[in-house]
Write a structure and sequence with these properties.
The complex is a heterodimer of chains A (about 700) and B (about 260).
Chain A lengths: L7 E2 L1 E9 L36 E7 L4 H7 L6 E11 L12 E6 L28 H8 L7 E8 L8 E13 L5 E7 H7 L1 E2 L14 E4 L2 H4 L10 E4 L3 E3 L2 E5 L3 E13 L5 E3 L22 E3 L8 E10 L8 E7 L3 E3 L18 E5 L10 E4 L3 E4 L4 H5 L5 E5 L2 E5 L1 E3 L2 E9 L13 E4 L2 E4 L1 H11 L9 H9 L5 E3 L6 E2 H11 L2 E5 L5 E5 L5 E6 L10 E3 L8 E8 L12 E8 L1 H7 L5 E5 L10 H19 L5 E6 L11 E10 L5 E14 L5 E7 L3
Parallel strand pairs in A: 3-4, 10-11, 33-39, 35-37
Antiparallel strand pairs in A: 2-3, 2-6, 4-5, 5-8, 6-7, 7-8, 9-30, 11-20, 12-14, 13-14, 14-15, 14-17, 16-19, 17-18, 20-21, 22-26, 23-24, 23-27, 24-26, 25-26, 28-29, 31-32, 34-38, 35-36, 38-41, 39-40, 40-41
Chain B lengths: L4 E3 L10 E2 L20 E2 L4 E23 L9 E7 L6 E7 L6 E19 L5 E8 L2 E2 L16 E6 L5 E8 L1 E11 L1 H14 L7 E6 L3 E9 L9 E2 L5 E11 L4
Antiparallel strand pairs in B: 1-9, 1-13, 2-4, 3-8, 4-7, 4-8, 5-6, 5-7, 10-11, 12-16, 13-14, 14-16, 15-16
The chains are: A mainly beta (about 700), B mainly beta (about 260).
Chain lengths: ~700, ~260
């Protein structure tokens, strides 16, 4: 029997901090430090090149606890300090769209400390006895670990007399801040991993750095323009775009592509198949990228002849949309004529020996940019060297986009720590010079696939430890058999959590940090009952309040999906090609006599990789489910339970029996399903629950 | 009725205590830091010792042990005290006994010696000790005024009932004791010579000490205590110099958890 089931017991709250700590011995090779010895923390290190981190765990328990008694059954906790004056976990709260994350506030007592388990060189410091050691624990802790932010915090709950293995983790996250209270205690503010996810800026800085300087890139339409690049300095690169570029919208037909927006490139080649550009601009009037023409069904392109040209090659690339969305450019074919339309079958050649779009690359080898001889022709394939590209491989991003400073670059492959096939200055960003050690940030793009794989990869990007991710993600992934989910590049700066929760909401799931400190997930449709709670043996006297929750009602929902504009924010309707409205006319006209509406955006729900009809059907089901949940106000209860019922967890479905609410006949409600939306252990060792009525 | 005993002197602070062996993370110096949450633990069972070389001869006549696993429900240890003038030849000063839970105060044969050691003999569980005092005791000049509140125990706890009135359970955190001993008729000479050093170096600095109400008759009634921040030390003296009255208030934990 666990002590929680006893009629009298002593709860123990255990806090673990994991701080940087070096495994080396001071002055022993490879640590070549000399002088007064350090404390093996990063900040006190005197020979950083040899610093080798292996986090050190500091244990703390409730100040009311007799540590000697605790160690009788949980001896592995030693050394442990009874400094936890109060540890308040503001638990996660489920909500329809975005979970409110959990935070912990831990107030720690401070006391003189003998340093014996902290200072590895205690015996070398010539103390007369332990009383000669100066300073209090927290003041010394902060002085030796000023870089405490972001370090791991775990909170466990157990009972005096129980083994440490029976303690259950109730919070896992990171330190945000440590402050000294005016009563001499110290306050540690902690955030859970979901909040960390919300704090992570997007594009994601995972820690990749440039290992060499990246030159600036210029573009020029021809040689004359290249020789007038007055801003260019040695090593800078010029991409000569001696080709005609057009930018129409197209409604489909012809060669089989579906509608979308495309770049067309026409380049002239001599009889030796060398690109010689397209010296004269084309005469097509749809070549202005900033002013794409209205949708046309047949593309007709025509251009001026180039002296020395024997034929012209035509390439096409999808700006965003359908054909070629994940495959890059498409070679259309070649023609000796000065015109092309998409109904014309061209003789396809093999363009692989030519630079994409026939662009040519030159690198300035001398400061004098005006001399053609100083521009050396180089391979067209640019590359970028980073210190560690393993995360890109780990999340399956073998090609994609990255952001360095303000520039967006594309890459088509990874070789070791080198990104190959790099395109610079994409999406109207400037190809600037970037110094060594510049951050290389990841722009997320996901091909159609299993949505739970996408979620797990996003958590990986957020550096969430595997031990802090619920196994339910993998179980859902393995059982999933629905439509594919995908995400086009998101160019807007935002938070990684917005992308994560957009997918969670698309799946009609809740995601939260559970009581074990793991990021968890659960379908909202899962109404499996885990417990009954009632007035007799569960609900604490005078702890109940009822909220009729009228503000949660909704009569119509307008949803957007099939995102096709990548440079708009996720919550902008113009970023989406499809919209759908779901409403309950009867409710609006008779019951409520009111319209309560809401917009929702589903960036991950796209036709790509799916039967469009299946996607439309999925969205109909999702919107109907969302409306059904809230078309009548879901009643909420706040109530408290005793610590014996601590196994009631957030997102559990319970059956409630109480006379706090009665049916139309005045009978107390019985066996009605409610979901635990919020669970907060309070300072009195009660557990406060917020539960919400569920249909079904 | 015997007078109360205070033990605040500790020879283990006069040098570096040495243990026969020590489990990882349980430095022997922890027994001298007054804290009941830092421990020495031997690295196994058998006869284990904590020895101190005082440098010069020092007198000890009392042993105090607290925060340990030595009682009969734990390691069931036999604890004894020995002294030596040369560190080689040892003489027993306290015969082996098995400590009770919580605080223990024992009289030790009073001698002066340079080397002292406390022995712990266990069979199945390694001995663990949080607080170990060995030194000269302070016996009060007079017994405390009666009646003596020798427990004054309270409880830090909370109990809950359900909406329908059923008893759901209780949490019990600890059992603090808050005691006050009142003394009368203390001579000014004894007070200044023997008691004020304790007050000035220990009591009013809120350093912990051992307090035994009557070691001869009620040896179990001893506690590891400290003054509280709210303490007021207010001795009242007659014109003749005799101390009319003063009280000693302190706080600790019950010995039975």
């Amino acid at each position: 029997m666990s002590s929680k089931d006893l009629i009298s017991r002593a709860p123990v709250r255990l806090v673990k901090l994991k701080m940087d700590y070096c495994t080396r011995a001071f002055g022993v090779d490879p640590c070549l430090a000399v002088g007064t010895k350090c404390f093996n923390t990063y900040f006190t290190c005197k020979y950083l090149t040899a610093y080798n981190d292996e986090p050190k765990t500091y244990n703390f328990v409730s100040s009311q606890i007799n540590v000697n008694e605790l160690l009788k059954t949980a001896h592995t906790l030693n050394p442990v300090r009874p400094f936890v004056k109060a540890a308040t976990i503001r638990e996660t709260e489920l909500s329809e769209e975005k979970t409110i994350t959990s935070q912990a506030t831990i107030d720690m007592l401070d006391a003189w400390d003998n340093d014996l388990d902290i200072d590895p060189y205690w015996s070398d410091r010539s103390y007369a006895n332990v009383e000669a050691v100066k300073g209090t624990f927290w003041k010394k802790f902060i002085a030796r670990n000023p870089n405490y932010a972001g370090r791991a915090v775990e909170i466990y709950d157990g009972f005096l007399g129980d083994a440490e293995e029976t303690f259950t983790r109730t919070f896992a996250g990171t330190i945000k801040e440590i402050k000294k209270n005016n009563d001499g205690s110290f306050r540690i503010e902690c955030a859970d991993y979901l909040e960390s996810l919300n704090d992570i800026k997007y594009p994601v800085d995972y820690g990749m750095k440039l290992t060499s300087d990246m030159p600036a890139i210029f573009t020029a339409l021809n040689e004359a323009a290249m020789l007038s690049l007055s801003d260019a300095v040695t090593d800078d690169i010029c991409i000569r775009q001696d080709f005609l570029k057009m930018y129409p919208d197209w409604s489909g037909g012809g060669t089989g592509s579906v509608e979308g927006r495309f770049y067309y490139y026409i380049a002239a080649f001599d009889s030796n198949d060398n690109p010689i550009g397209l010296g004269s601009r084309g005469i097509d009037n749809r070549d202005d990228p900033d002013n794409p023409q209205p949708v046309v069904s047949v593309i007709s392109l025509f251009w001026d002849a180039v002296s020395g040209a024997s034929n012209y090659k035509i390439y096409r690339r999808s700006a965003y949309g359908y054909t070629g969305q994940y495959g890059g450019e498409e070679y259309i074919g070649e023609t000796a004529a000065l015109t092309y339309d998409d109904d014309l079958e061209l003789s396809n050649g093999t363009p692989s020996s030519h630079p994409a779009y026939a662009a040519r690359f030159y690198q300035l080898t001398d400061p004098d940019y005006t001399q053609a001889a100083n521009w050396q022709s180089i391979a067209s394939s640019l590359s970028v060297d980073a210190d560690d590209t393993s995360i890109l491989t780990a999340i399956g991003a073998s090609s994609g986009y990255l952001k360095i400073d303000k520039e967006i670059i594309g890459y088509t492959g990874i070789s070791g720590n080198t990104l190959t096939g790099v395109s610079r200055g994409l999406f109207d960003t400037n190809s600037d010079y970037h110094k060594t050690n510049s951050d290389v940030c990841i722009i997320v793009k996901r091909s159609p696939g299993n949505p739970f794989t996408h979620l797990l990869d996003l958590l990986k990007l957020a550096k969430i430890p595997d031990t802090s991710i619920s196994s339910r993600f993998a179980a859902y992934r393995d059982a999933y058999s629905g439509i594919s989910f995908s995400l086009l590049e998101v160019l807007k700066d935002m938070k990684l959590g917005d992308i994560f929760f957009n997918l969670v909401n698309s799946l009609d799931c809740y995601s939260w940090v559970n009581e074990a400190g793991e990021i968890d997930i659960k379908y909202k449709s899962d109404l499996t009952v885990t417990r009954k709670i009632n007035d007799s043996d569960t609900i604490i006297k005078n702890s109940v309040s009822v909220d009729l929750n009228d503000e949660a009602r909704l009569t119509r929902l307008l949803i957007y999906y099939e995102r096709d504009v990548i440079d708009e924010a996720l919550d902008e309707p113009q970023a989406y090609a499809r919209g759908m409205q779901s409403k309950d006319i009867d409710l609006e006209k008779t019951a409520f006599k009111d319209i309560i509406d809401k917009e929702m955006f589903f960036a991950w729900v796209n036709y790509a990789g799916n039967d469009p009809a299946a996607v439309d059907a999925y969205m109909e089901d999702i919107t109907e489910a969302k409306i059904n949940r809230v078309k009548t106000a879901p009643v909420r209860f706040d109530l408290s339970v005793e610590i014996k019922d601590m196994d009631l967890k957030t997102a559990d479905i319970v059956e409630l029996m109480t006379d706090e609410i009665q049916d139309i006949y005045g009978v107390p409600i019985a066996d009605v399903k409610y979901q635990i939306m919020k669970r907060t252990p309070d300072a009195d060792n009660r557990i406060k629950l917020t539960i919400e009525k569920r249909n079904g | 009725m015997a007078a109360p005993t205070i033990l605040y002197d500790n020879l283990y602070l006069l040098g570096t205590p040495v243990a026969t062996d020590t489990a990882a993370g349980y430095n022997v110096l922890n027994v001298t830091d007054y804290k009941d949450y830092t421990f020495w633990q031997a690295n196994g069972t058998g006869t284990k010792r904590i020895t101190i070389d005082c440098g010069t001869s020092k007198t000890a006549n009392c042993l105090g042990i607290y925060a340990h696993n030595l009682d009969s429900s734990g390691a069931n240890a036999t604890v004894s005290v020995e002294s030596s003038v040369n560190g080689t030849d040892w003489t027993s000063r306290l015969a082996g006994f098995t400590p009770q839970k919580g605080a223990n105060v024992k009289k030790v044969t009073s001698v002066s010696a340079r080397y002292w050691r406390v022995n712990f003999v266990t069979a199945s569980i390694a001995p663990r000790v949080g607080v170990l005092f060995l030194g000269a005791r302070l016996d009060m000049e007079q017994p405390a005024e009666t009646p003596i509140g020798y427990m004054n125990e309270s409880v830090t706890a909370k109990a809950e009932e359900s909406t329908n009135g059923n008893y759901l359970g209780a949490i019990v955190q600890n059992h603090p004791i808050n005691q006050t001993a009142m003394f009368k008729g203390i001579t000014k000479t004894w007070f200044d010579t023997n008691f004020l050093p304790f007050v000035n170096t220990h009591y009013k600095k809120l350093k912990p000490f051992f307090y035994a109400h009557d070691l001869d008759t009620y040896s179990a009634d001893c506690f590891y205590v400290h003054a509280t921040p709210e303490m007021v030390f207010d001795p009242q003296r007659w014109r003749t110099g005799e101390i009319e009255t003063f009280s000693l208030s302190f706080r600790g934990q019950t010995n039975e958890q």
